[in-house]
Structures are given as structure tokens and as C-alpha cells.
């Protein structure tokens, strides 16, 4: 396979793609230039780090392997990257020779958000009934364990462009019939775009029920989230699923993470929720953005969600160029690799408390800060009730309760 040296970028809000610009690789450096026609539309796909300009640009940061953050957001990480690497290896392609443009070409039109890429080295399979969720889970476990498997291509098709560490698949879900399908990005009227998550090797056995309980708590705390459900396999095992917020029927919304927007290396982040607040205000142009981010920060602090990195906070842009904070996602009980919150609260990441949340709120003059924090604390205080209602095991309920009680006692 010859490395791809030029890639065309499109925005795909509707069936009609909009040409955005071109990326060209020259001696290992990737250059980008907007199309002249796109400049006239005034759509800022990355308003802080890739402003509209008729000049040829290169990224000013090395953290995205030579890409601008907005294009790096299209690339899979964690599970998706593992599947892509295994897929390329199975085709006899040396991973040492794969460039970021090659990877974007394999994403093609199947990534998150509205950005698509040509040439498209991915392909769509014919829509079909979905394999049993239990069987998919078993096959994923083999891949995670490093066992040779003949289903790499199939799993890549199901969810190889997804982000995050946990295995997941893209599906079409019919809420009237509970029928699941896969295999194409355009769905018939009766189906909705959903994502189904599967446990990783380090997850608690009932991680699906735990995340569903956190979803219920987040809604009660006033946090916007996309609809979530628990799907059940033939064995009775539960799987956490969420409706995609980057899709409205078959139309798309442009998705950009805080990591990509602010040039933050989410694995070694220096980001504070104050940076997210400022970003949200600049994009939404409304002080309500401050309250949204404060509520999310409070929830993550009091619910012990320490994996609150900048890839887990995103923003959406519609075809008119209007931005908003995306619905919250990946809210669950978690520890980070370094034992601290991935995103700081008023400079504190080891053990942020109510006082840090209030300091954060004071900096941005959030007038209803105490009421927001009180509401979140009250909801998290009812964890055991939510856990019971959502089928969380007794062991997991007690384990998580110990962490939440410690936070409440601070």
C-alpha cells in the first residue's frame, strides 16, 4: 500500500457533502488549506486553532501526530485504534508505514461527527440483523486478550471508528420493535443511530448497570444527556447503549472535543474546568454555558468520575455554524491512571472538594453556584437507591458507596 499524500476533507451535514479543504503530506509534514468556496460560507470548524484563512497551515502542536486537533478528533482511539491496527496487520500492512492521512482514509465517512474524508478506504457492508450481543462480547474479549481471531474485519465494521477505551459498536435501533441492525450509515425511517458499549477486561462485571445508574443520576442532577438504555443479551447479560447525539436521523452534526479545540493532550492533560468554561462561553456566547460546565464538574467530583479528560467533553456545531456543549457522556464510576481527576477544578486534581467548585464558580461569577452544587450532592447522596433500581450488584453498590461517602464527608 502506497502512503496517501493528499486527502480531501468534507462536511456531511446532509446527503450533500460540502468540500472543506485539502490535506497534503510532504516529507512527513502535513499541510492544510481551506477551499476558497468554503471560506465564503463562514463556517468555523475549529475556531481557536484552525481559523478560516486562505493560507496554507500546519499545526503548531505535536500532540496530534501532525494533524490539527479537529481532524485528529475523527481518528479512533483505544478500542477503535486497536481494531484498525489489527485490520491493517491482517492485510499485511506494516503499522510503521501507516501515516495519519492513511488512518483518516480508513475512517472515511464512518467517523463520529460530520467530517468525512476521501479517498475512503473503508467500506459499507450490507445491512443485516445484528449478531447476538453475547457473541459479539465474546469475540471482543478474544481480541482484548490478544487471541488470534477471524472476526477483526467484522468488529472493525461494527465500531472501528469509535473513540474511547471500551469496546463498542455502531448500530441501528428500532425503538418500536427493539430490533437491532448494523452495516450502513444511512438508516430507514424506523431506526435510530445508537452505540452499544461492552465491558473491558478491567471493568466491574456490572459496569453497564453502573453506567446506567449514573445516567439516571445525571438526569436528576440537571445534566443534559442523550437517551440511554440497557440492552439484554440471550444470556441475560446487560449492555449499556446510548443514542448518538452527532446524528439527527441521517443528518449529522460537527463534533469537536475540548482536547481538539484547545490543543490539550488528554492523556497528560493540563486542562482545568475553568478552561472548559471559557471555551463553552466563547462558543455558545451565553453565560448559561458556565452553569452547564460547573454542574458537570460537580457531578464528576461527587460521583468519583476521575476519567473526566478533555476527550470526554465535546461541542457540537450545526449547519448554520451554531455551537453548543454536547450532551454529557462517559459518566460513570472511574479512576484515572494517575489516581487524580483528569481535569482540574480550580487548580486541584488530587482531591477536589466543594470549596474548589465554589472557587471555580466565583471566578466566572456563576450566580446560582451553591444551588447547582447542592442539587448534585443531593442526587449523588441517593446513589444506593439509583443502584438498586438499575440492577447494580450488592458488591459494586457497596464499593462505590465507600468512595462517595468519603467525598461527602470532606
What does the model show?
- By secondary structure, the protein is α+β, with helices and mostly antiparallel strands.
- The protein has three domains: 6-118, no CATH class; 128-248, no CATH class; 253-409.
- It is 34% helix and 17% strand.
- The protein contains 14 helices and 15 strands.
- It has helices at residues 36-39, 69-72, 79-90, 100-107, 133-144, 152-159, 207-220, 258-262, 273-284, 288-302, 354-363, 369-381, 383-389, 394-409, and strands at residues 6-11, 18-26, 29-34, 115-118, 128-129, 168-174, 179-182, 192-197, 228-232, 238-243, 247-248, 251-252, 254-257, 314-317, 323-325.
- The strands form four sheets. Strands 5-7-6-8-10-9 form a six-stranded antiparallel β-sheet.
- A hairpin with a 4-residue loop joins strand 6 (168-174) and strand 7 (179-182).
- Helix 7 (207-220) packs across helix 13, helix 9 packs antiparallel against helix 10 (288-302) and helix 10 (288-302) runs parallel beside helix 12 (369-381).
- It is globular, with a radius of gyration of 21 Å.
- The mean pLDDT is 91.
Tag the structure with descriptive keywords.
410 residues; 3 domains; 6-stranded antiparallel sheet; alpha+beta; 15 strands; 14 helices; 4-stranded antiparallel sheet
Layout of strands and helices, then pairs:
Layout: E1 6-11, E2 18-26, E3 29-34, H1 36-39, H2 69-72, H3 79-90, H4 100-107, E4 115-118, E5 128-129, H5 133-144, H6 152-159, E6 168-174, E7 179-182, E8 192-197, H7 207-220, E9 228-232, E10 238-243, E11 247-248, E12 251-252, E13 254-257, H8 258-262, H9 273-284, H10 288-302, E14 314-317, E15 323-325, H11 354-363, H12 369-381, H13 383-389, H14 394-409
Helix pairs in contact: 3-6, 7-13, 9-10, 10-11, 10-12, 13-14
Amino acid at each position: 500500500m502506497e502512503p496517501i499524500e493528499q486527502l480531501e476533507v468534507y462536511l456531511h451535514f446532509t446527503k450533500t457533502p460540502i468540500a472543506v479543504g485539502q490535506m497534503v503530506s510532504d516529507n512527513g509534514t502535513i499541510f492544510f488549506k481551506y477551499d476558497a468556496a468554503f471560506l465564503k460560507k463562514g463556517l468555523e470548524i475549529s475556531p481557536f486553532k484552525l481559523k478560516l484563512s486562505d493560507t496554507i497551515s500546519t499545526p503548531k502542536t505535536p500532540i496530534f501526530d501532525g494533524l490539527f486537533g479537529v481532524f485528529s478528533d475523527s481518528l479512533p482511539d483505544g478500542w477503535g485504534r486497536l481494531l484498525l491496527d489489527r485490520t491493517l496487520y491482517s492485510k499485511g500492512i506494516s503499522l510503521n508505514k501507516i501515516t495519519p492521512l492513511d488512518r483518516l482514509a480508513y475512517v472515511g465517512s464512518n467517523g463520529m461527527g460530520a467530517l468525512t474524508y476521501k479517498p475512503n478506504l473503508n467500506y459499507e457492508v450490507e445491512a443485516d440483523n445484528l449478531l447476538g450481543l453475547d457473541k459479539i462480547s465474546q469475540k471482543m474479549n478474544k481480541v482484548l486478550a490478544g487471541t488470534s481471531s477471524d472476526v477483526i474485519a467484522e468488529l472493525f465494521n461494527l465500531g472501528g471508528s469509535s473513540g474511547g477505551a471500551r469496546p463498542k459498536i455502531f448500530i441501528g435501533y428500532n425503538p418500536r420493535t427493539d430490533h437491532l441492525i448494523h452495516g450502513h450509515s444511512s438508516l430507514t425511517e424506523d431506526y435510530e443511530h445508537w452505540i452499544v458499549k461492552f465491558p473491558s477486561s478491567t471493568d466491574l462485571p456490572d459496569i453497564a448497570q453502573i453506567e446506567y445508574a449514573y445516567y439516571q443520576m445525571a438526569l436528576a442532577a440537571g445534566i443534559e444527556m442523550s437517551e440511554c438504555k440497557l440492552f439484554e443479551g440471550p444470556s441475560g447479560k446487560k449492555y449499556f447503549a446510548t443514542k448518538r447525539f452527532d446524528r439527527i436521523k441521517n443528518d449529522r452534526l460537527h463534533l469537536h472535543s475540548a482536547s481538539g479545540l484547545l490543543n490539550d493532550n488528554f492523556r497528560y492533560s493540563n486542562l482545568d474546568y475553568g478552561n472548559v468554561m471559557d471555551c463553552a462561553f466563547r462558543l455558545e456566547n451565553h453565560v448559561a454555558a458556565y452553569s452547564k460546565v460547573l454542574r458537570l464538574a460537580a457531578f464528576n467530583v461527587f460521583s468519583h468520575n476521575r476519567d473526566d479528560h478533555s476527550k470526554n467533553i465535546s461541542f457540537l456545531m450545526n449547519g448554520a455554524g451554531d455551537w453548543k456543549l454536547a450532551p454529557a457522556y462517559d459518566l460513570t464510576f472511574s479512576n484515572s491512571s494517575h489516581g487524580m481527576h483528569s481535569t482540574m477544578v480550580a487548580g486541584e486534581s488530587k482531591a477536589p472538594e466543594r470549596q474548589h467548585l465554589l472557587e471555580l464558580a466565583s471566578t466566572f461569577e456563576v450566580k446560582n453556584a451553591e444551588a447547582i452544587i447542592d442539587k448534585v450532592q443531593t442526587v449523588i447522596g441517593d446513589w444506593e437507591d439509583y443502584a438498586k433500581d438499575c440492577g447494580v450488584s450488592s458488591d459494586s453498590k457497596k464499593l462505590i458507596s465507600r468512595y462517595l461517602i468519603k467525598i461527602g464527608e470532606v
